[in-house]
Design goal:
Helix content: 40-55%
Shape: globular
Radius of gyration: 16 Å
Structural class: mainly alpha
Strand content: under 5%
Distance between the termini: 22 Å
Number of helices: 4
Largest sheet: none
Number of strands: 0
Length: 104
């Protein structure tokens, strides 16, 4: 949402090992760019520095900023989001528990 953040999307994967490999590949690629400027990418829940987030150009991000103005203006909250396909509601209830212990 913010230009101060890094966002990447993996392609659909059928297994956790494949997903972990793709995430690691994206992380390595993402780290190359700031290194040229003497900076680094770090995975944090929020910024360690006092910042005023700059909303990115996408319509979706501007919708979020309009509806959650204070959070968008003051917070640089980060996270990891995963989309998974499940065959039933029961299977869907167990996915977070199984994924939590394997996320990098």
């Amino acid at each position: 949402m913010s230009r101060e953040q890094l966002e990447f999307a993996t392609s659909p994967q059928s297994g956790m090992n494949e997903l972990a490999h793709e995430i690691a590949r994206h992380q390595a690629e993402s780290a190359r760019h700031p290194e040229r400027m003497g900076a680094a990418v770090v995975a944090l829940a929020t910024s360690a520095l006092l910042v005023s987030p700059t909303i990115d150009t996408g319509d979706h991000y501007h919708w979020i900023a309009r509806h959650f103005r204070l959070t968008a203006e003051e917070q640089l909250t980060c996270g990891c989001q995963a989309h998974v396909e499940v065959d039933s509601d029961e299977e869907g209830l167990g996915v977070p528990d199984r994924a939590r212990v394997r996320c990098p």
